[in-house]
Design brief:
Number of helices: 4
Distance between the termini: 15 Å
Strand content: 25-35%
Helix content: 10-25%
């Protein structure tokens, strides 16, 4: 049950969203269904690529972020959706066996001018692997019900 409203957030807050470990089968299954490029589904072809082995689709990394965001905080928020992602970067490959940890940062909070019942949280998200390497960053807005 949602219990967090717009007024419960402040610029500068950070939320650790948890972690997820990817295995080879999950990478290949996702890519076979949604992004069947050889670097994601064919170990031999991936070995010959600039990555030197199988890597996860960046879109799979995004869906992992979304799941961790939901489980970590979003399902507690009176969320009214998002107008979209302003920036998305895949900074390093995600490989079988990687454990990904996500973080959400609130960069700004502002009342909606056109919908007084809503506020907007301007956010930055990131995922790091088990070595602390940054593998994904994104900037987006979240519309949240006001009290």
């Amino acid at each position: 049950m949602p219990d967090l409203y717009f007024e419960d957030f402040a610029a500068g807050e950070e939320f650790r969203l948890g972690s997820h470990t990817l295995d080879r089968d999950a990478i290949v299954d996702f890519a076979t269904r949604y992004d069947p490029q050889p670097i994601h589904v064919d170990e031999d072809a991936a070995q010959q690529s600039i990555y030197g082995g199988l890597i996860a689709s960046g879109w799979q990394t995004c869906t992992i972020y979304m799941r961790l965001l939901c489980d970590g905080i979003l399902l507690r928020v009176h969320s009214m959706g998002s107008p979209g992602i302003d920036e998305l970067r895949w900074l390093a490959p995600v490989r079988p066996g990687d454990t990904l940890s996500a973080l959400l940062r609130i960069d700004d909070v502002r009342a909606s001018r056109s919908k007084p019942e809503l506020g907007v949280l301007v956010t930055s998200g990131e995922i790091r692997n088990q070595n602390g390497d940054l593998v994904l960053t994104l900037k987006s807005a979240l519309m949240v019900r006001r009290r």
